Amino acid sequence: MSNNLWVLAASEAGPSPVIPQPAEIIVGLVAFSILFFLLRTKAVPKFEEAYRERTNAIQGGLERAEKAQLEAESTLRTYQAQLADARGESAKMREEARTEGAAIIEEMRATAQEEAARITASARASIEAERQQAVNSLLNEVGTIATSLASKIVGEALEDQARQSRVVERFLADLEESK
């Protein structure tokens, strides 16, 4: 009985809203075909072209990034090699400067020692000359004084030069022995 009710309700209601009419199916198929054709010929190629361009752009960007990274790594290696060379050269220059500085200091030290030795020798020679001059001057004065004293003591004049020098020499020899 419930089956009959349903059939009866369907016949009284008219066309079913769930089941389409054959004309609607044909119109729907034609509209779908036209829409499908338009989308397939107009929109899909544009989407595919945009997709291809986007893929190419991304792919090109990746390739450019890889190439840039390789160039950066190459440049970094070159820079590091140059830096190592510069450090080596700098160390070599410092060592050369240190060696040259030590040589200059040694040369200056030797020159200063030679100069000091020359000045010392010159001073000693000068002192010796002055001492000899002072001794000669003192000998002359002592000789004169000794001759004058001997003349007074002996009571005769010692004006003879040879006699005078013998007396002075004897007097000086006696002085040195008494020391």
UniProtKB/TrEMBL annotation:
Keywords linked to the UniProt accession: ATP synthesis, Cell membrane, CF(0), Coiled coil, Hydrogen ion transport, Ion transport, Membrane, Transmembrane, Transmembrane helix, Transport
Pfam families in UniProt: ATP-synt_B
Transmembrane residue ranges: 20-39
GO terms of molecular function: proton-transporting ATPase activity, rotational mechanism
InterPro entries: ATP_synth_B-like_membr_sf, ATP_synth_b/b'su_bac/chlpt, ATP_synth_F0_bsu_bac, ATP_synthase_B_chain
Parts forming coiled coils: 62-96
Family the UniProt entry places it in: Belongs to the ATPase B chain family.
Protein's name in the database: Unannotated protein
Gene source species: freshwater metagenome
